[in-house]
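User: I'm preparing a small set of examples for a lab meeting where we compare how different chains pack in three dimensions. I only have the primary sequence for this one, and I'd like the structure in token form so I can line it up with the others. Please keep the answer compact; I'll paste it straight into my notes.
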Amino acid sequence: MEIYAIEKLNFSYPLKDQETLRDINLTVNSGEFIAVCGKSGSGKSTLLRQLKSVLAPHGTRGGQIYFRKQPLENVDERTQAAQIGFVQQNADNQIVTDKVWHELAFGLESLGYPSSTIRLRVAEMASFFGIQAWFHRNVAELSGGQKQLLNLASIMAMQPEVLILDEPTSQLDPIAAADFLATLTKINRELGTTILMSEHRLEEVLPLADRLIVMDEGRIIADERPARAGEALRSMDHPMFVAMPAPMRIYAGVESGGDVLPVTVKEGRQWLNAYLEQLEGKPSQVLPAGGSDRNRQNKKNSAVVIQFKEVWFKYDRQGPDIIKDLSFKILEGQFYCIVGGNGTGKTSALSLMSGLLKPYRGKVSIGGKNPAAMRPGELFTNYLGVLPQNPQSLFVKKTVEQDLHEMLALRKLTSEEKAAKVAAVVELAELEELLAMHPYDLSGGEQQRAALAKVLLLEPKILLLDEPTKGLDSFYKEKLAAFLKKLNAEGVTIVMVSHDIEFCARHGEQCAMFFDGSIVTSHAAAEFFAGNSFYTTAANRMARHVWSEVVTIEDVIGLCQTSQRG
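Assistant: Understood. Below is the structure token output for the 566-residue chain.
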């Protein structure tokens, strides 16, 4: 049975000549799990928001959308609210009450259900989602993963037929993301709920999906089962193939033939075992030259630029400690990555570095000085740059262009010099088509790029990044990595908090694990990720039974090719 039927859908935003959606024809059947992917700005979020009238963006639309064989505009808002659930990327944007139990009940109360029904459904959802332990807590006390799970539970209490999710795991750590996706799978299989989900994190999503829809410049260029869609991208030599799961890309880098690409780590390991059995002798254990990006300049003798000494911090006098006896050093010119679960204290540590927070015990120093005691002009002018977790907190003007120029308003530069600096970051962040738009009208990935551009205009010597790859597609991640490495090579110290394990493993120099308010371990990137079960890459999980030290896709491909030649 058809849930949605989309016929010749076109859409363009006001004041934009180019259409964001072009001639979209799509059928969604009851009970399907459909993943949607594409570059930032390809139209994913715009397409998903067209599927619920109240969320549809303002602009010019052509074509027709049918929901259960009725034109969507003829389906009343109450029916849409009850039967079409939508989970946004930012969990905080969707929460409207102060208590967990009230958030679960809010949608049902708004629809006018009787109290007995509300109590039953709230109890059922709390049990199904494992919320009982924090049922009476304040929403503000929840971690990012708990907030997103609460959003999902609140929607499912209304028993929707369709669940639409716009990059719901982008702010979750790997374990919380896996738990969230496992819950989605349970909803899809046990309740029969139809799921449409846009996502950049395809390693975990594609194994769950019945179909993969790939978008490019507002068009659907592939709509197949995940393995077939991956093969279609490969045969087209389409750049979107770099976003496919590691097993697919490793297979494509080693095998020239074949048409069934492995999607999961399990399938990838089975293919790798069969491939190595065909070779004579033992697999090579020596990476070829250039096979891994691990050659870093030795910085052991570099000066300490950031130091924590027995630091303790809590937000409320009577509240729990968020940072607990934290001591560590970051050397000048290091690319230092911090990973760990939601709510473990990573963002609070960055805020202590930037002087926004003060410890109640211990010492934080930046270049030998207390950042909380430094004047803003001294701290942030050509010294410290901070990209916050929520990029919207940096936007203060009505257009992206005005926001960028605002960053240079107090600098003693000529108008030509200011224009040149803005033009340089606009090119880097690929903002040319977005300059006239309001920052809040941008997609999540576009906001992230605009915020990064603002920070880079400070020309910092120390760069603090809180989830910089959130909402970014694989293409721009590589461009971002190249630029960060260029800054790093010029002596800029980079501290990055991230849930993007693949990015940290591929590009980071030193990686640390945050747990329970402190750093429990810190090693060079290759050593750090090679020994973990969950905080590691898909390439490592796929091949570590043969090569325990591999971390990146290039590592595995290089060893396969070396073994073949041997």
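A couple of notes for your slides: The CA atoms of residues 314 and 320 lie 6 Å apart. The longest helix spans residues 174-191.

User: Perfect, thanks.
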